[in-house]
Amino acid sequence: MNIAVIGTGYVGLVSGTCFAETGNIVTCVDIDKEKVKKLSSGKVTIYEPGLEKIFERNEKEGRLKFTTSLHEGIKNASIIILALPTPPGEDGSADLRYVLDVANNIGLLLQPGDYKAIIDKSTVPVGTAQKVHDAVLQNLKKRKIKNAEELFDVVSNPEFLREGMAVEDFLKPNRVVIGTSSERAKKLLNQLYAPFVRQGNPVIYMDEKSAELTKYAANAFLATKISFMNEIAQLCERFGADVDMVRKGMGSDDRIGKRFLFSGIGYGGSCFPKDVQALSKSAQQADYNFKILEAVMAVNENQKVHLLPKLLSYFNNDIKGKKIALWGLAFKPNTDDIREAPSLKIIHELISKGASVTAYDQEAMSNVKKEIGDKIVYAENQYDALKDADALIIATEWSEFRTPDFNKIKSLLKNPVIFDGRNLFDLYQMEEIGFHYESVGRKVVN
Fold first, then answer.
1. Model confidence, pTM
2. Among this protein's residues, is 271 annotated catalytic?
3. Which residue of the set 18, 28, 236, 271 is catalytic?
């Protein structure tokens, strides 16, 4: 099949590459000339484990191409995938300008007799498929194209990709959700996804609005689990309980499950913050106050700086002139994404109180430097960040941070002090080695 993917961000590049991997001819379109130039020269523009290998293979085989021309991208395509950004507007609602701009342009380019299925893969509010349909149809009618409605269908096909595991999630999805009432579009989508669901994982068909809401509901529910456990962690600290024990007890109940029950310093990234906010705003626009989501967002923002009062208390509320080492900048491991990362809020708070920060992250440092420049020092490795630091904060649970050389940490830090926002280390081990160790929802080790 010939496929056009509009947008080469995280979702677009992963989707286009993985569709090419099953033998399709994929043309990716982006207005960013520099990005298209890099991609065309074989340079992957995001960090995602496993992506570079299949990207190189499919580009070499001629199945994966890049262009800045929408006309060139869609002219031979039977499927057009919209993977465009939907950033939060000033009021928190999803900004659809990029999606609708492309929809308008598609309406100016479709030709008589050339049917195309237009797939919304961007995360969009309920009713967007209809807006895209109307935008395309309006311009077809302006061009006086006969039987314009027969030229295309708009399908909602949300993505459920986890950053850091997106390639695996795409190639082996646990479910595919497709919102359409068109039998013609269903036939194309069945053909498109057949190689990905050979093991029997379901393709779930529904109406467009239900598919759009499914994506928001899934992300909002997972974010709710995270914030709930962070509230439980707050109680654990006050009652003297251990959140890890509570998590194990809860997670063994198959009605609850083990996933997303880890406490920490909150969620970030490109999906949860934006999607929870957008769903809450959509609810307001529908004259409904989604109270749980308001609480989820408030808890998460507070949780990002949960370690700061602990740090301040240790230093008698004065960290002016203190050097703080920070391990982890990405919002989660196995990605270079720093959008809404707790680390950025921590850095801002530390600097505002007169401390200096030396940070290390194996993938995200260049992105942070673009964001905040030289406000902090960037270390060459995790141990260089510790030299002459007064304390260590852990903000991202990269695997290399899980079993470090603790004796080396002690020798490099001025004080054997760790504030762990991801609960990486065993409390008894920290006690034996002689650290002052504070984490989330667990007892303080002195």
1. 0.92
2. yes
3. 271
